[in-house]
Design brief:
By secondary structure, the chain is α/β, with parallel strands linked by helices. Helix content is 40%, strand content 15%. The chain has twelve helices and ten strands. Strand 6, helix 5 and strand 7 form a beta-alpha-beta unit.
Length: 324
């Protein structure tokens, strides 16, 4: 597994990170806390990812209402010192921990939430800490100051931003430079063959400032894994039956045309469509990390395929053109 420095953070990460958003829930949605991936399956997934060379685990305080961080901490506690030394954990804060609880990036909340994350994870320092979303109700300077305090105290190694636009990211970087504060070293946004526009919009900012880019949603909620077929009902338990809002825009003939063409391209390379979609991301120069979120240990097979598949720039461009 190739590793790269994430931005200028000094933190080295595996090119593929294990997304743990469905451990004990479905992302940060309180309605699904206690559901999602079971404790036993989460341990199987973490073991399988580690065996593949994945040394970066991505989570958030609100995933599963805290279950995701807790289970990662329990898994880590069961391992030897070599795993402790090699594992890089990224966690995030913004969303509420339960119905009716507070949310956002107020400085006092960040300082409180990082303490609970440290306890659940069972570690003394979080290598990568991320603003999980942009908070329009809190001045960015307040948020950046809180992150700077955490880095200065040694509780956090480096900080990043998730779900930020290019403008929001640029504003935060300007504040850090002006005030001499810790800056965001990466952005984690949705990015895939099917969902490129907003991700590509921040590439210029990343290139200008030497930031890393983490791509989450690499299979677009299962669309690029061949889960959904033209004219067929969505499978039970799929993203389209649980949290479909962000993916309804894909349910159109042009997308199905592209998916069927992608399937033919994958068959010609003897890989799955998911494996080819992940390989496309790994071949995209601006992408530092691809965050994959399997719901079963065996769902990591496309990761293995992607690692064995090297796409040339013309191949990459040809696949991109399938979803114009």
């Amino acid at each position: 597994m190739e590793r790269r420095e994430l931005g200028r953070s000094g933190v080295v990460v595996s090119r593929l990170a294990l997304g743990c958003g469905n451990f004990g829930g479905v992302g940060s949605a309180p309605a699904f806390f206690g559901e999602g991936i079971s404790h036993q399956e989460a341990f199987r997934i973490m073991d399988a990812a580690w065996d593949l060379g994945v040394t970066t685990f991505d989570t958030a305080d609100a995933y599963g209402g805290g279950r995701s961080e807790t289970w990662i901490g329990e898994w880590l506690a069961s391992k030897d010192a070599a795993v402790h030394d090699a594992l890089t954990i990224e966690t995030k804060t913004f969303n509420p921990m339960g119905e009716g609880q507070d949310r956002g990036l107020a400085g006092a909340r960040i300082l409180r939430q990082v303490e609970t994350s440290l306890r659940r994870l069972g570690i003394e320092r979080i290598p990568l800490y991320t603003a999980h979303d942009f908070d329009p109700d809190v001045p960015q300077e307040e948020t950046v100051r809180a992150f700077d305090e955490l880095v200065g105290a040694g509780k956090v190694g480096a900080v990043g931003a998730s779900n930020f636009s290019a403008q929001q990211l640029t504003e935060a970087l300007a504040i850090s430079e002006r005030e001499g504060l810790t800056r965001y070293e990466w952005v984690q946004n949705s990015f895939s063959l099917l969902d490129r526009e907003e991700g590509e919009a921040v590439f210029r900012t990343c290139n200008e400032h030497g930031l890393g880019f983490e791509a989450f949603g690499p299979l677009a909620g299962g669309w690029l894994a061949g889960r959904y077929r033209r004219g067929e009902p969505y499978p039970d338990g799929s993203r389209m039956t649980q949290r479909p809002d962000g993916y309804l825009r894909f349910a159109r003939d042009e997308v199905f045309d592209g998916l069927e063409a992608l399937e033919r391209e994958a068959a010609g390379r003897s890989v799955s469509t998911a494996g080819l979609a992940l390989a496309w991301l790994l071949a995209t120069p601006e992408v530092t990390v691809v965050v994959v979120g399997p719901t079963r240990a065996q769902h990591l097979e496309p990761v293995r395929e992607a690692l064995d598949l090297s796409l040339s720039p013309p191949e990459r461009d040809s696949l991109r053109a399938l979803f114009a």
